[in-house]
Amino acid sequence: MSDTRFTSLDPVSLKNWRWAPFLQESIRAISVLQLEEAQIPLTFLDKTATFGSKSKSQQVQINTWACRSTKLRYARAVCVEAGRAASVLNFLVNPFHKYDLPFFGADLVSLPAGHLVALDLQPVLKLDKLHTAKVWERIIPLHKRWQCLMPWGGPIPKEAEPYFSPGFLWARLPLGDEGDQLISNVLLPAYKEYFSLYLDLVQEADEVSLSRSSNLLEGQKTYMRFRAEKDPARGMLTRFCGREWTESYIKNFLFDL
Question: What is the spatial distance between Cα 31 and Cα 29, in angstroms, rounded to a whole number?
Fold first, then answer.
């Protein structure tokens, strides 16, 4: 039997999961491209584990979805549902380096203390105006419109700053009705606009020169190394699934460039 298979995640099956509308929107919107299914190692496709003490054990379900296209190396979603302990959607789009495109990144996280939400078109070469100008002039107005409607998430580590744009949407939302309304009435429409902009950029992109492509590839590798080394989900996933599985998932699939 092959150790990989095509993704089969049906977002409808996750209808009771908090972040299901965002996954459904992602799959709906990206379908404008000519997509192929991406193969996912079986060990990462669907993962069920038990964590906690024997007397208070809890179950976590981790599903992985992915697709690809002629311009996208992959678009992949990680869906984590662990009841009150955590509910997470991590969505990343990685373009082929022969196109001068940023990454699309979204982290939507529910924890016992509240919701953390991060949304951005993340630069591959932040100091390169040829790479950033055409993106930032279109994303900054979106950020101005939406960030003021949500509580700011606070400072980010200095070492992470090269990997975010001025359009980085970053918020901490409370639990309960207030947080639910912000997610439905502010965050979801903001997400739609950010992802729509990204898909417009993808459709507009033309192939670049070989030398430019090489520079973009090095930028992508630097980004992936940083994400693999500093992934904030490492502790949570290790708690749920153990160190060995977590390290393999992070380094061999999530950030494997």
Answer: 5
| Percent helix, strand and coil across the chain, each to the nearest 5 | 45, 30, 30
Cβ contacts of 22 within 8 Å, gap of 6 or more = 89, 91, 106, 108, 188, 191
Beta strands in the chain (DSSP E): 4-6, 35-37, 39-41, 46-51, 58-69, 72-81, 87-95, 103-111, 114-122, 169-173
Query: Contact at 8 Å (CB) between 166 and 136?
Result: yes
DSSP 8-state secondary structure symbol assigned to residue 41: E
pLDDT in tens, 22-77: 999 999 999 999 898 888 888 999 999 998 877 888 899 999 999 999 999 999 99
In this structure, the number of other CB atoms found within 10 A of the CB of residue 232 comes to: 12
Q: Alpha-carbon dihedral of residues 194, 200, 132, 78, nearest 10 degrees?
A: 50
Spatial distance between the Cα atoms of 157 and 137, rounded to a whole number of angstroms: 24
Rg of the chain taking only CA atoms, in angstroms: 18
Pairing of strands 46-51, 39-41: unpaired
DSSP type of residue 201: H
- Whole-number pLDDT of residue 7: 53
Query: What b/e sequence results for 57-81 when a residue is b if at least 16 CB atoms lie within 10 Å of its CB, and e otherwise?
Result: eeebbbbbbbbbbebbbbbbbbbbb
For 4-209, which CATH class? alpha beta
Domain extents in the chain: 4-209
Give the pLDDT band of residue 4 (cuts 50, 70, 90).
very low
